[in-house]
Amino acid sequence: MQAHWQAFLCALQFLTLIPVRLAGMPDQATQARAFLYYPLVGLLLGGLLLGLVWLTQGLPVAVQATLVLVLWCGVTGGLHLDGLADSADGWMGGLGDRERTLRIMKDPHLGGTGALVLMLQLLLKWSLLQALLAESMWLPILLAPLVGRSAVQFLLLGTPYARPGGIAQGLQQLSRLPILVCGVMLAVLLLWLHPLVPVMVMVTFWGLRLLMQRRLQGYTGDTAGAVIELQESVVLITALVVL
């Protein structure tokens, strides 16, 4: 039980800025086990967002959406937004070359393409939050962070890592059963929301994975972050259109 609790705290520490205290420096086994708790961290994040939505009822929708987006970015520290921006820079500047793309994504500086994509993603999320909150559609806001982090689980388990070693080490020893069970449960929940939601999530996932395979022959931490951000937006967009 203690090992699983430490793994959850490790996942929380890695994916958010929520202050947690670990028993010590997590070893490779704990870091790998933490991977199983990514969806739970996403659900926790979604719960925090809904809590703020509930607390800010009565405020103008634009202000409410802004506060929710600030919390969304603040709790995650912009980690996945950074991955999206770096991926955009790499894809544009890489000119189709694998090594050049990887080199640009590893550069800590933000390029013009990355800055543009970052601003557009934030604007898209803000406008989607406004539209959903105006219709009192709260459930997609709860599910979007969960879907994003569940998608990363399937990306990391079913796709080679583009660089040697790195975050992929240790994952091969994990049991796939808990992830598959959680994935099926999430798919059923999304089907209940509307059949088009899981379809769009899966189409987006396989489309992004295909792009990574063709350009990089695998994924990186940056492209994993991009998957989280884009999957979150897909859930919000699709829910707004069909509900």
From TrEMBL:
UniProt key word Cell cycle: no
UniProt record, GO biological process: cobalamin biosynthetic process
Alphabetic keyword roster: Cell membrane, Cobalamin biosynthesis, Magnesium, Membrane, Transferase, Transmembrane, Transmembrane helix
EC number assigned by the record: 2.7.8.26
UniProt cofactor(s): Mg(2+)
Membrane topology: Multi-pass membrane protein
Signal peptide stretch: none
Positions of transmembrane segments: 34-55, 109-126, 138-157, 177-208
Similarity field: Belongs to the CobS family.
NCBIfam families given in the database record: cobS
Protein name as catalogued: Adenosylcobinamide-GDP ribazoletransferase
Lineage of the species this protein comes from: Bacteria, Pseudomonadati, Pseudomonadota, Gammaproteobacteria, Oceanospirillales
